[in-house]
Amino acid sequence: MTQTTALPAGGAARPAGREAPRRSRTVRRGWQAWLFAGPSLAIILVFIAFPIVQSFWFSLHDWKIGATEQKWLGLANYERLFGDPLFWNAFRVTLVFAVVSVVLQLVLGYAAASALQREGLLTRMVRSVFFFPTIVALATIGLVWRFLLDPSIGLVAGITTSFGLPAIGWLQDPALALPTVIFVSVWKNVGFTMVILLAGLKGVPAHLYEAARLDGARGLQLTRYVTLPSIRPTLLFTTMILTINSFQVFDLVYVMTKGGPLFSTDTLVTMMFREGFENFDFGYASAIAWVLFAVIMVLSAIQLRVFRYDDVD
Amino acid sequence: MRKITTAAAAGIIAAVALSGCSATAPESDGPVELTMLAGFTGGDRAAYEGLVDTFNTTHDDIHVTLEIQPWDSIAQTLPAAWATGQGPDIAAPNFDPNVVANYLETNSLLALDNLGSGDGQIDADVLFPAAVDAFTVDGSLYAVPANVATLQLYYNKALFEAAGIAEPPATVEEFQQDAVKLTADGVYGLSLAERETIQMWPILQWLEGGDIVDATSCSVLDTPEGIESLTVWTDLVKQGIAPVGLTGAESDSLFSAGQAAMQLNGPWAAAGYKDAGIDLGVAPVPTGVDGDVTLGSTVPLAASAKTAHPAEAKEFLAWWTGKEAQKQFALASGFPPVRTDLADDPELSADPVVAAFAAALPSARLYLPGVPEATKVDSEGYVPLIGEITRGADVASAAAKASATINGLTGCK
Question: In the list B106, B307, B320, B357, which could disulfide-bond A66, CB 3.0-4.6 Å?
């Protein structure tokens, strides 16, 4: 990426005589590139870009599907949103979900990846076991866990009660519901994080470790000064993907709790779904979508900045 | 270059738009094809399919294709489809009768003006009155009841016997005493759901003389009667007669596992409980302080305002609510008929399940009928209130908070 942005800057500094043929070639090549990109671009424009822009337009109205005239509200939907305690609740729940699950997934994923780095039949089998939940659909996982955790007929309650312990309503108690959903989310996704970080770890050249050892680095020092800096691009990618996914969490929560009990697992997306598809308040739901969009944009920018801070390339 | 891209994008948008709009069916000599969409995925599904089959075999000029999808999917796709003139000719848009108002906001529903007692006419005078009220807006009828159900008291005969109780409770006092008596050894007296189902709590409140909103859609939860009705049941729940925080599905599985002795539920649940091996009894909801009462529910069945075959759609709805169809449906499903003039039919009164649920129809009340923003009153007012008080919140202050929320939503001054 740095290379491509550097090229035009370098080109501009050159004498005018050599610049002209260069530009025409760039333009011609650009035209062909657009041709190749055209079909995908058209799909993105029609199915992604246009709806995104349109949803902003919705958010400025009291939008009723199919109505001939839509009532203009300006920013009233946003004002209502910022005064809505349910929005702030959903914002808090989403934030807690994202921070806790991203941190846990990174830490556990890294731990699993470094423990299972060595090649061998056993490590491969364990890796597969860790990865297995990742390939199952979230909705399926949610349903299975909901059954397992049911306080009356679930396996977990069956085990605890056979030891004389009380059956716990994991998804019925507002204090436990969010931690439980986070646990299931981490359980499902930690294999994905592990595989990505494993690829990163495998890419660290062995000579870096040798050199560090020669310089006297030991144990955690190797991790701190060799491993982590070397896999920074992988960490950036993983963190961003996990963060974005966590902020958009929907299917798991919808299947396990529908945002309940008492809104204790109500995330921004479940709230958006409720406002849009249960209350048919599409303007308000679109406003939620745009706030979420803004939050994710800002967070991604911060993450890019943090991870690139002392990048030298 | 930008022009080319824009032109290409515009061309593709146009192509997509055109292909989406090319659904007009060519005229032919065969029967008129109607499509119907509904969310009857439960044990009663076969009864609806049987009804459509009967219609098709008795009508040469109209053929109806019934498509069953989960209610969630219908709720997500139908509003947009109908508002833009696409989608099925006929649909049960939701299990909640209050959505009729939402669809009317987008002028999506066909007014049913073929009223009367003749052939091909909808006899609104003999249909379940609360449903007709709920589906009539500004004097026009916009839907017929696809079904009508009442909640009854399901009880586990084996657990009753084990607790030494011979008969199901007949009054609210007996109901409460039995619930306490039946609670023991990991068995709950009552399986009670707080969300994601047809509400059970309004019945408990009505039995004790309380209510949710009055005729002007103002909350009466924080009146002395409202608070008293909530307190009585909350105290019993805190004593342990019912588990806290269950969804409808969890409440059902508790009862099918034989871990709860009683439950308030509709006719759709009976088959599943029998399959689960429960020694099942169905009794009327015990008499409350103000007499007999139970919760009724009705699924609206409506036609699209933009259907290409309005006359045939109306004819189908008239047939659906007719005597023959309703008799067939009641016998196949255990639901009471949507008509009130079949009460004395010998075949129907011989069926104990149909008879039990039909007997409760006159005392059945709908949940939040005609209340503005009813879905939000439920999800943001009533459900959180029940959740809070059963988890230990002070009833009076929680009821006051819920009242403020509800009044804000309904526009009550």
Answer: B106
**Residue A28 located in a structural domain:** no
Instruction: Tell me how crowded residue B277 is: count the other CB atoms within 10 A of its CB.
Output: 10
List every span in chain B annotated with CATH 3.40.190.10.
31-149+297-366, 152-296+370-410
Contact A242, A225 (CB under 8 A): no
Q: Would the CB atoms of A169 and B243 count as touching at under 8 Å?
A: yes
What does DSSP assign to residue B89? S
Residues 6+ away with beta carbon under 8 Å from B82: A66, B91, B93, B103, B106, B108, B109, B304, B305, B306
Which of A65, A150, A263 has the CB atom closest to B83's CB atom?
A65
A33 lies in some domain:
no
Tell me which residue of B21, B82, B9, B71 sits closest to B42, measured CA to CA: B71
Subunit contact A46:B82, Cβ cutoff 8 A? no
Domain total for chain A?
1
ipTM surpasses cut 0.85 = no
Q: CA of A226 to nearest chain B CA: how many angstroms apart?
A: 47
pLDDT digits (tens, 9 = 90+) for B65-116: 999 998 888 988 898 899 888 999 999 999 888 888 888 888 899 999 999 9
- Give the CATH number of the domain where residue A223 resides: 1.10.3720.10
Domain that holds residue A116: 85-312
Task: Give the domain B31-149+297-366 fold.
Answer: D-Maltodextrin-Binding Protein; domain 2 (3.40.190)
User: Could you state, in chain order, the average pLDDT of each consecutive group of 10 residues for chain A (313 residues)?
Assistant: 39 45 58 90 95 94 79 93 94 96 96 90 92 90 92 89 88 94 95 94 91 89 90 90 92 91 94 87 94 92 76 46
Burial of A6 from C-beta contacts in 10 A (0-12 / 13-18 / 19+): exposed
CA distances A229 to A159, A201, A234, B190, Å, are 44, 11, 10, 60
Cα angle at B39 between B37 and B45, to 5 degrees? 100
Give the Cα separation of B346 and B362 in Å (integer).
19
Q: Taking the model in full, what pTM does it have?
A: 0.81
CA distance B371 to A239: 47
CA distance A205 to chain B (A): 44
Buried b (16+ CB within 10 A) or exposed e, B63-92: bbebebbebeebbbebbebbbeeebbbbbb
Q: Report DSSP state, residue B184.
A: B
Q: Which residues of A lie closer than 8 Å to B, measured between beta carbons?
A: 30-31, 34, 38, 41-42, 45-46, 50, 64-67, 86, 150-153, 169, 171-174, 258, 260-263, 274, 277-280
Are B144 and B135 spatial neighbours (Cβ–Cβ below 8 Å)? Answer: yes
Class of domain B152-296+370-410: alpha beta
